Amino acid sequence: MTTIQRKKTSPIAHLTPEDIEQIGIELDAIRDEVMASRGAKDAAYIRRVIAWQRGLELSSRGILLFSLFPPAWLVGTAGLSIAKILENMEIGHNIMHGQWDFLRDPKIHSTKWEWDNASPSDQWKHSHNELHHTYTNVIGRDNDLGYGIMRVDEDQKWIPLYLGQPLWNFVNACFFEYGIAAYDLELGKNLATKKRRQDPGFKARLKQTRRKIGKQVLKDYIVHPALSGPSFLHTIAANAVANLVRNLWTHSVIMCGHFPNGVETFEKTSIEGETRGEWYLRQMLGSANISGSKAMHLMTGNLSHQIEHHLFPDMPSNRYHQVAPKIKDLFQRYGLTYTTGPLPKQVASAWWKVIRLSFPNRGEAAIRRPIEKKAPATATRWRRAEAPATETVAP
Amino acid sequence: MAVIRTLGAGAWRVVELITTPVVPADYLDVIAPLRNAQVLRAKVEAVRPETANSVTLVLRPGRGWVRHEPGQYVRVGVDVDGVRLWRSYSITSPPWRSDGRITITVNAVPGGAVSTELVRNVKRGMILHLDVPTGEFLLDETRPEKALFVTAGSGITPVMGMLRSALHEMTDVVLVHSARTHEAVVFGSELRTLAAEGRIRLIERHTRASDSGRLKPADIAELVPDLFERQTWACGPNEMLDDLETHWADGGVAERLRTERFRPTLLTSGGGGTVTFSKSGTVVETDGTEPILDSGETAGVLMKSGCRMGICFSCVLPLREGAVRDLRDGTLTVAEPGDNIPIQPCVTAAAGPCTIEG
Ligand SMILES: Cc1cc2nc3c(=O)[nH]c(=O)nc-3n(C[C@H](O)[C@H](O)[C@H](O)COP(=O)(O)OP(=O)(O)OC[C@H]3O[C@@H](n4cnc5c(N)ncnc54)[C@H](O)[C@@H]3O)c2cc1C
């Protein structure tokens, strides 16, 4: 993939600035309609999911007290894996987005929720809500693209180290919760210099993360195993597998959101002075959905509706399926590609990209297209790659 | 003892580790919502109609409840169409009930979100949210020799709480009560019985039935000639209380009159207003078009900020009082004193005077 600014044929070349603002107006209207209709049904939904998740977790852990017996181990591990996935995805992720803040229930509130994950929610909210959702797919700004450790774009200079990135990506997937904690801490940047290492803010956050991890590890690998007595080792294994399954699953879902074929990336300079319409457009082009059943939507925390989620990150997740047809229709009317596909296909597509980019560019992509530093209105800026040189104002 | 306590605390810490990152109470809440001392709740034990538009709720407060003083009120939280809304209600029961129950009496305000919900939809067995009792509208430790109560409509509630708690300690009590009709008098039969037994002097005024209209201080002076000699407690609409306060001040006995208001002073209509940042003490005049985040920052308030477009929730601060408007969809959020409603300063502007904790 190449940033939209460097593409030979831009997928949005046909849109005028007025079109883009009109898209913004239409999306605002879709948002307003749903947000105004939030109510008791939505409240019942999230409370039901939480109750189910807690029931499932509690009973799975109960069954794992007897994990010495293979059937108990299997059932308990499967149940706990599902419970952990639900907790992270449909519950934790979405609550921390403020989707349920409108309930004004401190027990289900973005500022109060703590999730079953290595990264403390405060830190995750900063890097995810603030950085990723604001700078979605902007190369050099959006950490979710993994540009810190990986080559995610043809325009990133290739070095031999990237040959190993399929392996890093797999390792990251297995230990994903720690990977998240690491980039919420911006470890790469903050460990680089002594000054940053000594920074009191960083040290406080490091301590917070260490404590969180400590508790998580104690719970999964000491307390619950100890409670299961003779099944000690089996419970350790069960909990490790549940965490692994959760990590692999969440990693896959997240890769599907922004990596598959058809998803666009953006230049750093292209978002300066972005209008609301342009912001919306970037979210539309920078995300991909996963098609599937109701169960799939639930297990992905409705990130299967990644496009809808990126357009309306604070809309209750149970409403994404309701707006999806309208969004799809909007894409169609404005001649844009609504990227979606079944999970295996999207995962394969994302992995293929990771593998492809671990090698140097080949063919056309090997020739870097020059782009100017500054430009006027964003709509023009975004189309610059194919605009005749006389139309670019930048000196 | 100390050993047991240490063991207990240790065991509890293990239980906390079992449930981390949530607290054990989150699981216990499902089966025993009243046991949670951190989150005060109440179970509705009975719903008794009072008039066509009002009910008395008998509540069993959970752990963490503190005994109230007669005249005090309690904040009640109820989920109205999914959204937890809090309102204040005077406690109408005496504090010494042996079963630990309390009662509140709610009058349905036309179009009122919480009062309508409590009067029409709350059923026995439901769980409500509760705060500890508070309020300065109190009787003195030494009961007054001569007392006067002036109430109108649902303003009778705190006074009923006082009468039920302390009437037996008072000898000369006059109650002037105004309601729309004879039937609309909340606690009508109980009050009339007290009057018939000669324990209070009850003066009822029915604004619908007679042409006399709203209760004026002059009317009271006529009915109760020795009013300035009496310790007086008044509760009712703001206009009535304003009138009374002026009258008592003119009579040079302002300190004999105590009032309880059910409604905040009216908000200025339209956008804009004075924003008070309670922590830093900064006060900013705003025109209602600029986000509170910008106004605060311009005034030098240190504020957390993130995306500045309403999606990241980094800047969320509690609205403690007043009204703000969501600049995106115009939603109005109103907080009464004691409220704590998180708002997003980056997409919210003042819609009247308001206090933000920041
Ligand atoms: C200290 C205190 C004690 C209180 N005790 C009681 C009590 O014992 N019993 C009781 O019924 N209420 C009591 N109230 C009032 C109560 O807290 C609510 O304000 C009232 O029930 C209306 O809330 P709502 O959500 O139904 O109306 P809202 O949805 O908040 O308001 C709807 C509309 O009704 C108007 N409105 C609000 N309150 C009134 C009112 N009292 N009369 C006429 N119009 C109104 C509003 O301006 C608005 O236009 C007390 C208030 C305070 C501050």
TrEMBL record, chain A:
One of its GO terms (cellular component) is membrane. Residues 375-395 are annotated as: Disordered. Residues 72-340 form the Fatty acid desaturase domain. GO terms for biological process: lipid metabolic process. It comes from the Bacteria. One of its GO terms (molecular function) is oxidoreductase activity, acting on paired donors, with oxidation of a pair of donors resulting in the reduction of molecular oxygen to two molecules of water. Transmembrane segments: none annotated. InterPro entries: FA_desaturase_dom (IPR005804), Fatty_acid_desaturase (IPR012171). It holds the Pfam family FA_desaturase. PANTHER family: ACYL-COA DELTA-9-DESATURASE, DESB, FATTY ACID DESATURASE 2. This is Fatty acid desaturase. The lineage of its organism: Bacteria, Bacillati, Actinomycetota, Actinomycetes, Micromonosporales.
From TrEMBL, chain B:
One of its GO terms (molecular function) is oxidoreductase activity. SUPFAM superfamilies: 2Fe-2S ferredoxin-like, Ferredoxin reductase-like, C-terminal NADP-linked domain, Riboflavin synthase domain-like. InterPro entries: 2Fe-2S_ferredoxin-like_sf, 2Fe-2S_ferredoxin-type, Beta-grasp_dom_sf, Cbr1-like_FAD-bd_dom, FAD-bd_FR_type, FNR_nucleotide-bd, MRET, OxRdtase_FAD/NAD-bd. PROSITE patterns: FAD_FR (PS51384). It comes from the Bacteria. Its cofactor is FAD. Residues 37-140 form the FAD-binding FR-type domain. Keywords: 2Fe-2S, FAD, Flavoprotein, Iron, Iron-sulfur, Metal-binding, Oxidoreductase. PANTHER family: NADH OXIDOREDUCTASE HCR (PTHR47354). This is Oxidoreductase. It comes from Paractinoplanes tereljensis.
